[in-house]
Input
Amino acid sequence: MSPTTGRVVPGPEEYERLRPRLLAILGQLRWSGYPIDMSMALDLVHDFFVEVWPGLRSRFDANRGAWDSYVAGAFVRFARRRIAVDSRWRAMLRDVVPTELSAGPDLDLDRLRGALESLPAGDRRLLLDRFEGETERGLAQKRGWSRYAVRERLVRALAQVASVFGNAAPPGSVDGRVARLLFEEGRSVPAVAALLKLTMAQVHAARARVLAVMRRYAKGEMS
Output
């Protein structure tokens, strides 16, 4: 038990003993079709020990199986959930890269400014750093976080600002409707395409325009 938090934590020997098996499980999941970024495998294992481990001992029943098998099963469930969420987040963030698309003339920049300024200072700085080309790995290293934690914060900030963008766009604007559905409601690209009777390419293009406007404004290229 941690003397400062009261939480059960694994000793270094148990962590080192279990880590290879958990990494092997991720390899098996990837082989079976799960979209796992193996460069983040250690992050997943670390997050499992931080987030799930404290409750494992209290729930373990030796009459129902071996301890290592119990841990492995818990890790599989954790990893599957985390991979699914991470895939959705990566799709949402895919277009946050440099581009030269320009803003439409009728965008309400005051609302966009207000959305950016309403973010907590740490989230705003994180989003601006990403807009300026910093990688998720670089952002994580600077802050001492996992890349999963960085992506979680980025998605939250992006969703808040992009949902305001949807209301700042001209009435009936395709880009505004796409922004609301993708970022505020969290719908997938195929679902948005079906709802708005657009092709997926059109939805991807609208999303890219929304993010381009946000990026250019955040970098001081628009006033």
